[in-house]
Design a protein that fits this description.
Blueprint: H1 7-19, H2 22-34, E1 47-51, H3 53-62, H4 65-70, E2 73-78, E3 90-95, H5 99-110, E4 117-121, H6 127-134, H7 137-142, E5 143-148, E6 154-157, E7 160-162, H8 168-173, H9 181-201, E8 205-209, H10 220-238, E9 250-256, H11 271-278, E10 285-292, E11 295-302, H12 308-313, H13 318-334, H14 349-386, H15 388-399, H16 405-417, H17 424-437, H18 444-454, H19 458-465, E12 500-501, E13 514-515, H20 517-527, H21 596-608, E14 612-617, H22 622-635, E15 639-643, H23 649-657
Parallel strand pairs: 1-2, 1-3, 3-4, 4-5, 7-15, 8-9, 9-14, 14-15
Antiparallel strand pairs: 6-7, 10-11, 12-13
Length: 678
């Protein structure tokens, strides 16, 4: 089993993961596949990169301007903005395959804005879009490349990605969305973009999804899963490699936000979660002020992969972060630049040289420490001002059923008596945790009671009942249900949902009991114990007698090294995860009988050689992102989580509030290909 894996093997697996890290695959596809391999005839010539709103997010999430400059990109320009002609440079268009974007390309060609036009689409281009290019003589004469990169997602973390469909929650769960054209187009968009992730990673997925059974009230997961399967099948068929579907290379589980409605609103007490929850850090940029001889200066710090202290601390509990920062501050106070004790007088010439050489690095480390000390101070101030530690302690008790509505009212009254002003959104989050974990507690009289005890408005309290649209039975039997005409109104009496409790590493910290449901699903999928009725495979009806084949079925799993026909992208970016999983398979594909020990080792090898990807329709949380990192180490295989968007508690509450209005098809999705007929 996994617990028997040797440390050396674990290190080997994690080194493999590092070499083929998800973020680096994305970067390689842009810099190598698109800007180098496909432009080999002009590899050393400077060019202009033209992007639209969709592709800009893809590029900026994976590459810095210095990376693009190394690929001979002199400037990045926006397709929708007027641009000066540069007839001596090639124009490289990396754009979504929309009629609007292609119309701008045709217009540029007719104006001869660039020497040549190289057009790369982020995803599969509809026939009408390609016909528009063919119809322009100017465009055809200038065209150097026209191909589909299948790269329409952006990385948010080394273990996470988003397909950038920010309004997916409303488009798939709002009033009237079920089986509507708006929902269908939204699922088309999501599946199309998710397919580009599989292409970029070079994976043929074994797809499972959250079924509409039991208390589950939505078929969104199945809709996206079916569309993803059809989209990938069509791509394989076009390559003459449809048989590759029989040899899946990774495991994909598709769920929607209704699988865990507590995770988006509960307080997460790890550093990254608290920074994005409590502070204003747009796009990961922290703004702060420092005092110098010239007075007060405004500064900015980017919290990302290039900040080693951020990488070290982001998933740590805030209490641990405060301790580590204090220890580092003491170290810098007591140790000089060269590593010696401050005040040492008898430095040799060699020691002095080392001290001078180390000075820039030490100053940079001190600057980073100063930034994070400032951040921690701000977080601590917010916690103290709003008594959030007390709120968080009650919150944990609420979600585990150890507290009642009386405890909530007692806390609100106590804070009021002490003059502590708890922000309204914090009160609403606590109530959302309560109604999510205590079914059927709301009716009109309860709404009035909560308004009286919290100061929330009727509009605020009505957000609670919007959870009904996510399948949570919030309203009491007999209570007026504004959604009764939808499929959600026929729910039977609900039981208290199962909430996972953190065990082992990290569980010793206060306020850290809650564990996102995603962690449990990944663990079960890895072990081959995930319920096949609640989470069936694509093509197998929920409740079917036969369990779906998984990587746990030796006769169905094959090493990725044998998959030559299944490579989606160019050879350099296929994302091959070759391992030892099938080293004992004979050339004819026959499995030979072996001991239980050998079979167990083989199963572990198969697991570690396959990525496990969870995709959440309706938004993911930073707490769930953290679990992808933790589980990658624990299970010795790469675990990736993706979603339609990355949410903060405040953004999720705002989107939840919008579910009561009828969903419609946003104009920006008008060009999306209909995948239902594939």
């Amino acid at each position: 089993g996994l617990s028997d894996a040797s440390p050396s093997r674990a290190r080997r697996v994690m080194a493999d993961s590092s070499a083929r890290a998800f973020a680096s695959v994305t970067k390689r596809r842009l810099l190598v596949d698109m800007l180098t391999t496909k432009l080999r005839d002009r590899a050393s010539a400077w060019r202009v990169l033209i992007v639209d709103n969709t592709s800009l997010r893809v590029v900026s999430s994976a590459c810095k301007m210095s990376d693009l400059a190394e690929a001979c990109v002199s400037v990045v320009e926006n397709l929708d903005v007027a641009r000066a002609p540069q007839p001596t440079l090639d124009g490289v268009y990396f754009i979504a395959p929309s009629e609007r974007s292609v119309a701008r390309v045709v217009e540029d060609c007719e104006k001869k804005l660039y020497r040549k036009a190289h057009v790369f689409f982020t995803s599969a281009a509809p026939r009408g879009v390609l016909n528009a290019i063919k119809a322009s003589k100017a465009c055809v004469s200038m065209l150097g490349n026209c191909s589909e990169m299948n790269l329409e997602y952006f990385t948010v973390d080394p273990k996470g990605f988003s397909v950038g469909v920010e309004d997916a929650l409303r488009g798939t769960f709002a009033v009237g969305s079920e089986q509507s054209q708006a929902q269908a187009r939204m699922m088309d968009m999501i599946a199309q973009r998710l397919a580009t992730v599989m292409v970029s990673l070079g994976e043929i997925p074994s797809i499972r999804y959250m079924a509409k059974v039991g208390n589950k009230k939505s078929d969104v997961s199945r809709g996206v899963a079916d569309r993803l399967d059809r989209s990938l099948t069509a791509l394989l068929r076009a390559k003459g490699a449809e048989a590759a579907k029989n040899n899946p290379t990774c495991d994909v589980l598709i769920v929607d936000r209704s699988f865990d409605v507590i995770a988006p609103v509960v307080h997460e007490w790890t550093y990254e979660s608290m920074v994005t929850d409590l502070l204003n850090v747009p796009n990961g940029v922290y703004q702060y002020k420092i005092t110098t001889k010239k007075g007060e200066e405004s500064k900015e710090a980017v919290l990302g992969e290039n900040d080693p202290l951020w990488v070290e601390l982001r998933h740590a509990h805030i209490a641990e972060v405060l301790t580590v920062l204090a220890d580092k501050a003491k170290t810098f106070a007591n140790v000089g630049p060269g590593g010696g004790v401050v005040g040492g007088r008898d430095l040799t010439t060699g020691q002095l040289k080392k001290a001078v050489e180390a000075l820039p690095r030490v100053l940079e480390q001190q600057a980073k420490l100063s930034v994070h000390t400032s951040i921690a101070g701000e977080i601590n101030a917010v916690l103290q001002k709003s008594a959030l530690s007390e709120v968080g302690r009650l919150e944990q008790d609420v979600v585990f059923g150890d507290a009642t509505s009386k405890d909530l009212i007692a806390l609100f009254n106590d804070l009021d008596s002490r003059g502590v002003r708890l922000p309204m959104v914090e009160k609403l989050r606590l109530l959302l945790c309560y109604v999510s974990s205590h079914p059927q507690k709301i009716d009109e009289s309860e709404k009035k009671r909560w308004m009286t005890n919290t100061g929330l408005t009727l509009a605020d309290v009505n957000i609670l009942q919007n959870l009904e649209l996510l399948g949570v039975k919030v309203l009491k039997d007999g209570a007026s249900n504004p959604f009764s005409s939808s499929m959600f109104g026929s729910s039977t009496k609900s039981i208290r949902p199962k909430v996972l409790e953190r065990k082992g590493a990290g569980s010793e910290w206060d306020l850290f009991r809650f564990l996102p449901t995603m962690a449990g699903l990944v663990t079960e999928l890895d072990a081959g114990t995930l319920d096949a009725t609640e989470y069936p495979s694509v093509g197998i009806s929920p409740g079917a007698a036969n369990a779906p084949p998984t990587m746990m079925s030796p006769t169905k799993s094959r090493s990725v090294r044998t998959r030559t026909e299944a490579s989606w992208a160019t050879h350099s970016s296929a994302g091959s995860l070759g391992g030892d999983g099938d080293s004992e398979r004979s050339a004819s594909g026959t499995n030979h009988r072996r001991s239980d020990s050998m079979t167990s080792n083989r199963a572990a090898s198969q697991r570690s050689s396959r990525r496990l990807i969870v995709f959440v329709v309706g938004g993911m949380t930073r707490g769930e992102l953290r679990e992808a990192h933790v589980l990658s180490q624990k299970l010795h295989r790469e675990v990736i989580i993706g979603s339609t968007s990355l949410e903060t508690p405040a953004s999720f509450v705002e989107k939840l509030a919008g579910l009561a209005s009828v969903a419609s098809i946003p104009e920006k999705y008008a060009d999306i290909a209909d995948l239902s007929g594939l």
